[in-house]
Design brief:
The protein has 60 residues and is an all-alpha fold. It contains four helices and no strands. Helix 3 runs antiparallel to helix 4. It is globular and about 25 Å long.
Length: 60
């Protein structure tokens, strides 16, 4: 999903974060790992969102 349509991934992540979802739960809903969400967001140029998933991975 993320490699083919990064704008859709960004839209989903942004919406779920604004709705109060935890990054771990977002990754779970997208059937991805925290690190794969972070990498996909980095490749799409959204380093601000990617950092949220990196920090969560360290804490989890």
């Amino acid at each position: 999903m993320s490699a083919r349509r990064p704008h859709i991934l960004i839209e989903h992540v942004d919406f779920m974060l604004s709705a109060g979802e935890h990054p771990w739960r977002i990754a779970q809903r997208l059937d991805m790992t925290l690190s794969s969400v972070s990498r996909a967001l980095q490749r799409a140029g959204r380093h601000d969102l990617a950092r949220l998933f990196e920090r969560t991975g360290i804490a989890a």
